[in-house]
């Protein structure tokens, strides 16, 4: 398969290129940001190791260090946030989580690299992926935590910065706490979350939409 399959088009790149630094007139020329970004897309979509990065993207180690630098400054979160604000066409958002088991080789990273989203749960060492998507299943927010963290804990953080007025919010019973429902209602959202069986206060619920 051609590596071009993973490349951003010119129109896609124009939407995000202002996030990246311009080339300096003096000193050592920096890596081409577009090539590095395409390299990261190739790695994420192919599932390959860093060392298997095709030479057309440059030195794998240089690309890796640029990737780490962008993570530290929150570049990918900024891009996602701005692209979400650029469109308000979605009518519905859905929130849920899943987990993946951490391979033993994924443990023991140096603390200087930051806190790992790894926790010990009944399934062993796991990472939980909390995601927010719209009706087109386009990602609007994602948070990684240890596997022992309850689904609802990062929910409010995911909803922050998302336009909720008039939007329908779908989630399962794990997100049906008073705190979350009050937050959504206070921001003008239409809450479609079933109540837990032991809930003291019952909420209106569109069972058909939930299906």
Description:
The protein is an alpha/beta fold and 211 residues long. It has 2 domains: 3-80, no CATH class; 89-210, Nucleotidyltransferase, domain 5. It contains 7 helices and 6 strands. The chain has helices at 10-14, 33-46, 60-72, 75-86, 155-159, 178-186, 207-210; strands at 92-101, 119-121, 124-134, 139-146, 168-170, 190-192. Strands 1, 2, 3, 4, 5 and 6 form a 6-stranded mixed sheet that branches. Helix 6 links the parallel strand 5 (168-170) and strand 6 (190-192).
Q: Quick gist of this model?
A:
The chain has 211 residues and is α/β, with parallel strands linked by helices. The protein contains 7 helices and 6 strands.
Topology diagram in text:
Elements: H1 10-14, H2 33-46, H3 60-72, H4 75-86, E1 92-101, E2 119-121, E3 124-134, E4 139-146, H5 155-159, E5 168-170, H6 178-186, E6 190-192, H7 207-210
Parallel strand pairs: 1-5, 5-6
Antiparallel strand pairs: 1-3, 2-3, 3-4
Order of helices and strands: HHHHEEEEHEHEH
Derived from helix and strand composition plus strand pairing, the structural class reads alpha/beta
**Rg to the nearest angstrom?**
20 Å
Q: In which range does the helix fraction lie?
A: 25-40%
Tell me the distance between the termini: 38 Å
Number of domains: 2
Low-confidence stretches: none
CATH domain fold name of the largest domain: Nucleotidyltransferase, domain 5
Determine the strand fraction and express it as a percent band: 15-25%
pLDDT averaged residue by residue: 85
Query: How does the overall form come out from the CA principal axes?
Result: globular
Largest sheet: 6 strands, mixed
Write down how many β-strands occur, each being a DSSP E stretch of 2 or more residues.
6
Give me the CATH architecture of the largest domain, please: 2-Layer Sandwich
At the first level of CATH, the class of the largest domain is: Alpha Beta
């Amino acid at each position: 398969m051609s590596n071009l399959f993973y490349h951003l088009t010119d129109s896609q790149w124009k939407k995000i290129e202002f996030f990246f630094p311009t080339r300096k007139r003096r000193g050592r020329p920096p890596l081409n940001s577009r090539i590095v970004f395409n390299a990261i897309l190739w790695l994420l979509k192919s599932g390959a190791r860093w060392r298997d990065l095709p030479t057309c993207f440059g030195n794998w180690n240089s690309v890796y260090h640029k990737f780490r630098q962008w993570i530290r400054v929150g570049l990918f979160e900024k891009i996602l946030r701005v692209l979400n604000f650029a469109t308000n066409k979605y009518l519905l958002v859905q929130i849920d989580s899943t987990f993946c088991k951490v391979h033993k080789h994924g443990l023991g990273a140096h603390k200087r690299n930051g806190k790992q989203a790894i926790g010990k749960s009944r399934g062993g060492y796991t990472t939980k992926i909390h995601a927010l998507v719209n009706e087109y299943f386009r990602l609007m927010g994602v948070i990684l935590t240890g596997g022992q963290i309850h689904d609802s804990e990062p929910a409010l953080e995911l909803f922050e910065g998302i336009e909720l007025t008039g939007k329908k919010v779908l989630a399962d019973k794990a997100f049906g706490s008073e705190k979350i429902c009050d937050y959504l209602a206070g921001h003008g959202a239409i809450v479609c979350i079933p109540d837990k069986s032991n809930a003291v206060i019952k909420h209106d619920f569109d069972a058909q939409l939930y299906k």
